[in-house]
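Our example pasted here:


***
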Amino acid sequence: MTDSSTSHRRIAIVTASYAGDFERCRLLCDTIDRHVTGHSRHLLLVSHRDVARFRALESSRRVVVDERDILPGWLHDLPDPFSLLRRRIWLSRHTAPLRGWHVQQLRRMAIAAHVDEDALLYSDSDVAFLKPFDTGRLYKDGKLRLFRRDNRLSEPGHDEHRVWSRQAGRVLGIADDVANPHDYISTLIAWKAETARAMCTHIENVSGRHWVSAIARSRKFAECMIYGRYVDDVLKGEGHFHDDTEFCRIYWSGPKLGESELREFVRGLAPGQVAVGMQSFIRMDIGDIRAIAMAA
């Protein structure tokens, strides 16, 4: 249900992408245009070298954003010699060497300082919407939805998520004895832009460094954990409500699915789910995904 009190609030959809995901991102854009309402703009955050290619996806409400316009100038994008120059690496004297997935997270955090929308809905580029979705669903009683799986980190497994949670606590200056067992990682999650800006300022005040430098001195970080712990442990949940509904059914890992298996996966959407996400590294046939998505 859409919150009628949100009519004056503006929401931007944000996607950080790269050239290797271009066709997946094109499908995301097509399905957003077909199924998603209530947003003001869709922002595509890409590296400088990918800007020209992604311009093809621009429209009256879709804008390509060059990372050079939102990230510090001292963070440099270079060919990675250890991948025979097939991949990129981001280097600076202020951070650890970073891969593309690290920098995509930094872009998602940085964009909050460059928008006038009230909230940001983050969608990965390998997502496709299959059902109608109104972004007003992100608000309830004037508060913004914060995705949270309660006590997930207390369960066996999830070791990497626990590492990210501890790192989030460190960059936020949260005492080591403040344990947070919750998991905030998913796709189609929402942040308050004002809160994200305040979070970056808080990190700078705690660390005495630019927030990018403070976070990326370690390669083990997750922006969702940082925002979630900032809201819950620093702001005590102010302006947000918790919800563990996953709007997107994600195929995280496993063998490549054929068309019939993919259709079966789509039929398994739970109530409230409006999209599917196929991790790009699985190399699913984008034609099969498009055929199913555009027939929905």
